[in-house]
Amino acid sequence: MQDDLAIAVQRNEKLAQPATADRDALQQFVDAVVAFSEEPGQANLERYLAASRSLEEARLSALENLAQGPGEGGLARTPSRAA
What we know:
Elements: H1 2-38, H2 42-67
Helix pairs in contact: 1-2
């Protein structure tokens, strides 16, 4: 029972980390889109492209983190117990 609690706590911590990174990357992307729409130009285009790459990297990192086992920092599914 205590192992199950420890795994649940670890999963919640791991879920919170990618969410924060994703929110930051998403906010940077939104800011870059707004800036580019208001003033199209080379600098804002580069800002948009960099923010787009960061958002994609955050998404891929979150997916990789979910695919790893709990001991490796991820959220792999634990085997269910028979009742």
